[in-house]
Design brief:
The complex is a heterodimer. Chain A is mainly alpha-helical. Chain A contains nine helices and no strands. Chain A is 85% helix and 0% strand. Chain B is an alpha/beta fold. Chain B has three domains: 157 residues, P-loop containing nucleotide triphosphate hydrolases (Rossmann fold), CATH 3.40.50; 65 residues, no CATH class; 36 residues. Chain B contains eleven helices and ten strands. In chain B, strand 4 and strand 5 form a beta hairpin. The chains are: A mainly alpha, B alpha/beta.
């Protein structure tokens, strides 16, 4: 019994310490935005990495999701004779919910894992120590440019995801079920309001911060808890980063939706 | 803390969690000299180096730079100190995503307002100094271990440091490359008047380059002095280290059994 209490207590203390360290890391991440070195070139490089290189995977995911929404939406709406509302159903589902979430999850899987592994390798190879010894703030140099880039890339990728998804719904609705193109587009135009778009932008910005915070944090402290700096620690921290980021994105999605609805 | 001393270590204690790894280490590092920190693996050499370069937090009153307490440095003071030092890590610690020349340009582009062309020229000069000028556009992964180490040294020299810290310069290198690095260290001391601190367990290399040797053993200072003083030291452990004698097995059978079976099982048997 005593051992069990000891175990629970020690785990609780570890978690509290971990949360505190995450908080301090976040403060450094934000402070790094305003510290040297200059951010222009690193941010452009990161926008290319997070944004441009995610174009295909986001496009493919959005197209298939839009087409599935078209199929399922048409099936449901046909029961009530409201097929003309297919455009609204697809657009609202994507803009308010699926666009930001899918973008967040796909970018986490593609770019977040790579960021975590890159920083983790830098940790085990003493490259982060080398930065510190050169009097270079590792946060300002490594992590903060990623945050700025993600805050620019995520909303743009989300908008792209929404447009491609709506087009996927159009392909199914108009191409497969013979809906009038004008009816589909009119339904999109009349149903979507600025508040829906606003919610999508807020969500994508929140997801960008969460993904960068968690993935860079896990990479930065690779092996530190274990006191062992090997390749296995990099793979462990990368897996944890992707899982934790995905869970955080889904939780945050619910919280933002409940606040803004 | 004489005027010749640039760094003074005074009763330095260091811990990892609850485990003490350094016990009351006291010695001084003289200006424009090569100080070699020696000892068997796991004796605390690298931990001591991490304290000296500020990667491990030092308590107040244990480490002094020209009389100033490094343990009391705030972030700005620590950064000022780090701009005066260069560090060559055991692995080289080159940034994998950059070419060799870009690696050397990193501290220059962050800390100076030099034009890109000037930085490029300085990087080439530093690479020439370590004999790698023809490899400036190579990626670190395309270089051999010895070349990576030399490129790491070029980066450590980029800001013309007053104090250079070198961690295990000869480990994993062939004798010719290792001797080349030793020559380079002596050249840096003689031509630029650099203060150099080398962590190593290679006897031959240490005797060749050291003005002063600091020997550690199980986290304690075993001996400190010139090469001759160390060679003449009558301490049993110093002699064992210098004569490369293997560690004597001191475990009795009971302890060996305890380690094999675990204490609980042994008690059960009893």
């Amino acid at each position: 019994m005593l051992r069990f209490v000891q175990f629970v207590g020690s785990r609780a203390l570890d978690n509290v310490e971990g949360l505190g360290r995450m908080g301090v890391f976040f403060a450094h991440l934000l402070r790094g935005i305003f510290r040297a070195p200059g951010k222009f070139r690193p941010v452009l490089k990161q926008i290319q990495f997070i944004g441009t290189r995610s174009f295909f995977v986001i496009g493919f995911t959005a197209l298939s999701t839009g087409m599935v929404l078209g199929l399922q939406g048409h099936y449901t709406l046909a029961k009530f004779g409201s097929e003309s509302l297919l455009g609204a159903a697809v657009a609202l589902s994507l803009i308010r919910e699926l666009g930001p979430v899918l973008t967040g999850l796909m970018v986490t899987g593609r770019a977040g894992s790579a960021m975590c592994a890159e920083i983790g390798i830098m940790r085990i190879d003493e490259q982060i120590d080398a930065l510190e010894c050169m009097a270079i703030d590792p946060h300002a140099y490594l992590t903060s440019p990623k945050l700025i880039a993600a805050l620019i890339a995520f909303p743009l990728l989300t908008a792209y995801c929404n447009v491609v998804g709506i087009f996927g719904g159009y392909l199914v609705g108009v191409g497969l079920f013979g809906l009038n193109p004008g009816v589909y587009m009119n339904s999109v135009e009349t149903s979507v309001e600025w508040s829906d778009v606003h919610m999508g932008i807020v969500k994508s910005c929140c997801f960008a911060v969460l993904m960068i915070w968690i993935c860079t944090y896990k990479g930065y402290f690779t092996g530190v808890d274990e006191g062992n700096f090997g390749p296995e620690q990099v793979s462990n921290s990368t897996t944890r980063a992707v899982v934790l980021s995905s869970i955080a994105i889904l939780l945050c999605d619910y919280i933002v939706t409940s606040i803004m609805t | 803390m004489g005027e010749r001393c640039v760094i003074d270590v005074v009763n330095l204690n260091s811990f990892y969690g609850g485990r003490q790894v350094l016990h009351d280490i006291t010695f001084s590092i003289a200006r424009n000299e090569v100080t070699v920190i020696m000892g068997v693996s796991g004796c605390g050499k690298t931990t001591l180096l991490r304290h000296l370069v500020g990667l491990k937090k030092t308590g107040p009153g244990q480490l002094f730079l020209e009389g100033e307490d490094i343990g009391g440095f705030n972030v700005a003071a620590m950064n000022r100190y780090r701009r005066r030092i260069g560090v060559l890590f055991q692995s080289g610690a080159l940034f994998n995503s950059m070419t060799v020349a870009e690696n050397i340009a990193v501290p220059l582009s962050v800390h100076s307002r030099l034009a890109a062309e000037t930085i490029r020229i300085i990087a080439t000069i530093k690479l020439h100094q370590v004999g790698l000028s023809q490899f400036r556009d190579y990626m670190p992964s395309q270089l051999s271990g010895g070349m990576q180490k030399r490129a790491g040294l070029a980066r450590a020299l980029a800001m013309d440091p007053e104090i250079l810290f070198v961690d295990e310069p000869s480990s994993g290198l062939d004798p010719i490359t290792a001797a080349g690095l030793d020559e380079l260290i002596l050249e840096l001391r003689d031509t630029l008047g650099m203060t150099i601190i080398v962590v190593t367990h290679e006897l031959e290399s240490a005797f060749r380059i050291a003005d002063q040797i600091v020997m550690l053993d199980r986290g304690r200072l075993l001996a400190a002095g010139t090469v001759e003083q160390i060679k003449a030291n009558p301490d049993e452990r110093v002699i064992q280290f210098l004569q490369r004698q293997a560690e004597q097995k001191q475990d009795d059978n009971q302890k060996y059994l305890e380690r094999l079976l675990g204490e609980s099982e042994l008690h059960l048997q009893a």
